[in-house]
Design brief:
This protein is α/β, with parallel strands linked by helices. It is 41% helix and 15% strand. The chain has 2 domains: 17-40 and 282-382, Alpha-Beta Complex (Aspartate Aminotransferase, domain 1); 44-280, Aspartate Aminotransferase, domain 2, CATH 3.40.640.10. It has 15 helices and 14 strands. Bound molecules: pyridoxal-5'-phosphate.
Length: 384
Amino acid sequence: MHFDFDTVPARLGTDSQKWQKYAGRDILPLWVADMDFKSSPAIIAALHDRVAHGIFGYARPVKSTVDAVVDALQRNYAWKIDPAWIVWLPGLVCGLNITAQAFAQAGEEVLTLTPVYPPFMSAPKNSARLSTQAAFVLRDGHWQIDWDALARAVTPRTKLFYLCNPHNPLARVWRREELIRLGEFCAQHHLVLCSDEIHCDLILDPTLHHLPAASLLPEISVRTVTLMAPSKTYNVPGLGTSFAIISDPALRAQFIRASAGVVAEVTALGFTACEAAYRDSEAWRQALLTYLRGNRDFLLDYLAREIPGIRVEAPIEATYLAWLNLEALHLADPVAHFETHGVGLSEGAYFGAPKGHYVRLNFGCPRATLAEALHRMKTAVAAR
Ligand SMILES: Cc1ncc(COP(=O)(O)O)c(C=O)c1O
């Protein structure tokens, strides 16, 4: 079956956050992480059927929805979970906030590795917890965990560790030995491990596999909250359907207690999309991965040939996000400069990088949009 990723959808003037940001200006938005592709035909058809039913009361997942999640984890990752381990959530940023409240007290610390998706640093602060950080290092052409820096960053007040697996914005897939070492680190320091795996179904390097941290060893599973969602892969983040997987009953009870009364329920349409995503959209996902690999290669090739001042320092192993080093351009405010020339990117400083050194580019869009954006970026660099 052929799936169309080339047609540029009309998102201007819609409810899209990504496109509204630049309403009335000719700026191609390559910032927030949703894709300019329609969801899979199976999801759209399932939503049509559900809408035709016409009643949208408070929802609970039916067995087939839970089965779709459980089966996908078994099929894709050989991870056998008990359906009772699933805690449904309306979003994963919400999950990051809940873990901070559940597993650290006010004034205690939540440790993470930077650069990283900004809510990893802001979620603890929302409830008077502290965010502490250790920086990744670039070694042998890969972003690596600096184990010494991590050991220095942990204190007796550290209670929780946030892992982004695969990593946003570094597009890194963590290897088995790294995950096991992180699990040991968390055990040694009595930390709960919160593993955000929202990008796990978007592995671009065909030689690599996503490994759910909790699936590796029982010792890791008992201290881990895994966060997952169909939202990134199937482009349904606006439907707000996500879940935590927590095998340890005490940890799960603590998480549920922290959510009580403040976390909204998942909607009927969200459950419908989730089931169709995990059960009926595998051919679409594979076609998407092929298209994204093409976009990644197009991007890397274009930058190397046409804009050598912008460097991608490590392989893009997963996600549709590229972390671009543009220090060599000496721009005081790269995001503003590229906006002036018609491209909207994310400022690296929000992810914990030095201001002006990095931007993040979202290549989850039709190739024609990417090509036009890169052409505008080349013009912007020439005009600086
Ligand atoms: C690592 C990571 N976690 C969570 C989210 C957002 O999750 P949600 O929209 O479900 O709150 C994103 C979105 O880009 C992300 O990259």
